[in-house]
Write a structure and sequence with these properties.
The strands form 4 sheets. Strands 1-10-13-12-11-14 form a 6-stranded antiparallel β-barrel. The protein has a 4-stranded antiparallel beta sheet with strand order 2-9-7-4, with no helix packed on it. The chain is 33% helix and 36% strand. The protein has helices at 3-18, 80-101, 106-136, 142-192; strands spanning 27-43, 47-50, 55-60, 67-68, 73-78, 195-197, 202-206, 214-215, 220-225, 230-237, 249-254, 257-274, 279-286, 298-315, 324-327, 330-333, 335-339, 343-348, 356-357.
Length: 359
């Protein structure tokens, strides 16, 4: 609010106190409409750093306030899960190798069956050819010839099935062995590095956990954000948020600098309401920032909606319910315009000659 409006409101209030029976007159002044918001200052890009794996926080490589580079190690974790996974992966490799190349593996059994089937095929082939030659000389019977032929064909078919089964089993076991080796390599990689690294270059603002503590995946190890750039996070009531637009000016007062007013500009309006606080989050950027800022500084802001340089106003406390005003001739209805916490614009119904009283 401008100094002129504050001075006008003070004069009006003083007149009301000294001449309560005589009332006061509306006057022309500047008036600014604004939306109130509570303020928290946060570093730009502030994010939570989580553990790479559940386990023991083995060591912290930084302290609060340290500057870190993108990719720099913040902490190291020790987890029993990767060690168990590595041991299981080694066992699976050994098992897959035994199935593929071991003495008593399935392939060796199939190879023995194939050798027997080949011997049987040779025998059935000789018997078939011998019986065929005899039959061509009309020696023996046709039934015996057909039986020899059938045995030969069955032996050949059985050998083909076994050889196909051997190739298929060999392929499956070879692939299983390759997969187990890949799993082992991945387990070894997981065991080698459980370092937690910074995602962006910035400053470490918080380290809520201590070395030696057991950390779950969803527990925060650190908070990292920009070192030099800060954002103003404002909580705006849902009644007022529809009046806001990106680019509007905000006047900010921080508790740490209570005697100064800083200018900022609305940069983002979040579309989702916070159900716990029933407010909307609005971000703004400083146009004039203090020299020293810390994460979490709090304060208040007024987001400027519109300003009228000269208009008829009365103190807000003189406006009654349903836009009524107590005058020397009785209660009348007035048409109001913009308002703030101290004054309200009178569009019609009063002029500077009107005498009004507190309701």
């Amino acid at each position: 609010m401008s100094a002129t409006l504050k001075y006008t409101c003070f004069v009006l209030l003083l007149a009301a106190c000294n001449n309560r029976e005589e009332g006061i007159n509306p006057s022309y002044s500047a008036v600014t409409e604004s939306v109130y918001a509570s303020v928290t200052v946060q570093p730009e890009g502030l994010y939570n750093v989580y553990a790479s794996v559940p386990g023991i926080l083995d060591s912290l490589s930084v302290t609060e306030g340290d500057t870190v580079r993108a990719g720099e190690v913040i902490a190291k974790m020790v987890s029993v899960l990767p060690a168990l996974s590595l041991e299981n992966a080694r066992l699976n490799v050994d098992l897959a190798a035994e199935k593929l190349r071991g003495r008593a593996n399935e392939l060796a059994t199939l190879a023995q069956e194939i050798a027997i089937a080949r011997d049987q095929l040779r025998l059935d082939s000789l018997n078939y050819m011998r019986q065929k030659n005899l039959w061509e000389q009309r020696i023996g019977s046709q039934v015996e010839f057909e039986n020899r032929k059938l045995r030969y064909e069955q032996a050949a078919n059985n050998l083909a099935i076994l050889e196909q089964r051997y190739e298929q089993t060999h392929t499956e076991l070879r692939n299983a062995y390759a997969r187990s080796k890949n799993a082992l390599a991945q387990a070894e990689t997981n065991l080698q590095d459980h370092s937690v690294r910074a995602r962006i270059a910035g400053k470490v603002y918080s380290l809520p956990r201590e070395e030696g503590e057991f950390i779950l995946n969803q527990e925060i190890i650190a908070q990292v954000g920009s070192r030099d750039t800060f954002l103003i996070e404002m909580a705006v009531d849902e009644v007022d948020v529809t009046r806001l637009e990106v680019g509007q000016m905000a006047l900010v007062v921080l508790d740490a600098y209570s005697d100064q007013v800083f200018k900022a500009q609305v940069s983002r309006i979040y579309p989702q309401k916070d159900e716990r606080s029933q407010t909307f989050k609005v971000e703004a950027r400083f146009r004039q920032a203090p020299k020293v800022l810390y994460a979490g500084l709090s304060g208040e802001a007024n987001i400027l909606i519109q300003t009228i340089d000269r208009t008829l106003v009365i103190p807000l406390e003189y406006l009654g319910p349903e836009n009524t005003v107590q005058t020397d001739t009785g209660v009348i209805s007035v048409k109001t315009g913009i308002r703030n916490m101290e004054a309200v614009e009178i569009v019609s119904g009063l002029d500077t000659s009107s005498v009004i009283f507190k309701p």
